C-alpha cells in the first residue's frame, strides 16, 4: 500500500506540469522553453541533493560503465516524454492532455513483452519473455473508461486537427516515459537510489535539451522572466519532487510486474489534480455530471489496482531485450 500512496503523492506534484504548461501557453510562452528549461533547472538541485547524500561517485561510475545505455534511454524516458507533452500544450488545454496522458497506464502494461523476466523452474532460474498481466490490464481499461467519460464532453467541442495535435504527441510520451524508466531501472539493477537515477537521466538527456534550447533561441527568441519562473516551479514540483517520488515507488516494487503496473496506474490521479488546479487557477468551467462519473470510475479503478497489488507476486524485469 505504501508504494501506491507515494505514487499518488507523485501524481499530485506531476499535475503542476499540466496546469502551469497551460498557463504558460495562454500567456504566449513557447513549448520549447517549457520543456528544455525544466530539465536544465533540475540539474543544480539534483546535484546538491546527491552530493549531500554522498552518492555522486557511484552514479558517475555507473554512467561511465554504460554511457550509450544512459544516453539512449534517458532521451527516450525524458526527451521523448516531456518535449511532446509540452508541444501538445500548444494545441490542447491542460485537462485534455492530462486525460490523454493516462494512456500510459495501458502503455506500461503493454511493454512487458519487450523484457525478459527471471522465472524459477525445476531446472533452476530461466529467462523468459515477459507476459502482459491481464488482470492489471483489465483494471487499467476501467480507469481509461473513466478518463474517456471525464473528457468526452470537452473533446467533442474541439476541431479534429487540434484534437490530433494535442493527442498524438501525448500518446508517444505515454509509451516513452515508462519504457525509459523501466530500461534504466533494469540496467541499474537496484545499484542506484531514486535521486541518483533521476540525476543520471537528467544529465544524460542534457544534450537534447541544450540543442532544443539553441533551436528555441533562433526561432522564438529567449524565454520571458514569467515563463522562466513558472518553469522553475515545474522543475522543482514535477521534475524533482514528483519524479523522485515516482521512481522511489517503482523501485520499491521492481520485483513484481503486477505491483509495478499498479504504481504506474496511480498517475491516473493526475487528471483529478489537474482538473482541480485548472478550476482554481485558470477558472475553467465546472465539470459536467458525466465528467464526475468518470472521476468516480477512476477512483474505483485505483482501489482495484491497490487491492490487486497485494495479491500473489508476479516476477518483474531483471534483464531487458533490445526493443
From TrEMBL:
It comes from Planococcus salinus. The chain crosses the membrane at residues 31-51, 71-90, 96-116, 136-152, 158-177, 198-217, 229-247. Keywords: Membrane, Transmembrane, Transmembrane helix. Pfam families: EmrE. The keyword Coiled coil does not apply. It comes from the Bacteria. InterPro entries: EmrE (IPR032713). This is Multidrug resistance efflux transporter family protein.
Amino acid at each position: 500500500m505504501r508504494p501506491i500512496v507515494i505514487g499518488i503523492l507523485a501524481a499530485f506534484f506531476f499535475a503542476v506540469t499540466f496546469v502551469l504548461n497551460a498557463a504558460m501557453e495562454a500567456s504566449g510562452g513557447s513549448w520549447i522553453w517549457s520543456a528544455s528549461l525544466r530539465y536544465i533547472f533540475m540539474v543544480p538541485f539534483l546535484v546538491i541533493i546527491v552530493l549531500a547524500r554522498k552518492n555522486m561517485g557511484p552514479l558517475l561510475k555507473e554512467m561511465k560503465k554504460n554511457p550509450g545505455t544512459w544516453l539512449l534511454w534517458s532521451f527516450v524516458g525524458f526527451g521523448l516524454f516531456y518535449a511532446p507533452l509540452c508541444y501538445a500544450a500548444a494545441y490542447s488545454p491542460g485537462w485534455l492532455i492530462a486525460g490523454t496522458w493516462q494512456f500510459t497506464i495501458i502503455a506500461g502494461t503493454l511493454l512487458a513483452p519487450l523484457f525478459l523476466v527471471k522465472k524459477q523452474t525445476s531446472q533452476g532460474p530461466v529467462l523468459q519473455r515477459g507476459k502482459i498481466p491481464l488482470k492489471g490490464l483489465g483494471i487499467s481499461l476501467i480507469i481509461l473508461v473513466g478518463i474517456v467519460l471525464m473528457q468526452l464532453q470537452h473533446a467533442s467541442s474541439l476541431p479534429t486537427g487540434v484534437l490530433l495535435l494535442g493527442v498524438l504527441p501525448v500518446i508517444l510520451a505515454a509509451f516513452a516515459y515508462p519504457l525509459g524508466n523501466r530500461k534504466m531501472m533494469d540496467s541499474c539493477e537496484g545499484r542506484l537510489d531514486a535521486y541518483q537515477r533521476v540525476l543520471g537521466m537528467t544529465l544524460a538527456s542534457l544534450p537534447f535539451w541544450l540543442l532544443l534550447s539553441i533551436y528555441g533561441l533562433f526561432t522564438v527568441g529567449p524565454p520571458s522572466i514569467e515563463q522562466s519562473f513558472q518553469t522553475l516551479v515545474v522543475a522543482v514540483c514535477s521534475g524533482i519532487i514528483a519524479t523522485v517520488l515516482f521512481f522511489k515507488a517503482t523501485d520499491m516494487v521492481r520485483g513484481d510486474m503486477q505491483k509495478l503496473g499498479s504504481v504506474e496506474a496511480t498517475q491516473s490521479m493526475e487528471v483529478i489534480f489537474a482538473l482541480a488546479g485548472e478550476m482554481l487557477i485558470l477558472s475553467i468551467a465546472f465539470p459536467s455530471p458525466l465528467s464526475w462519473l468518470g472521476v468516480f470510475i477512476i477512483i474505483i479503478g485505483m482501489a482495484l489496482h491497490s487491492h490487486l497489488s497485494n495479491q500473489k507476486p508476479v516476477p518483474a524485469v531483471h534483464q531487458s531485450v533490445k526493443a
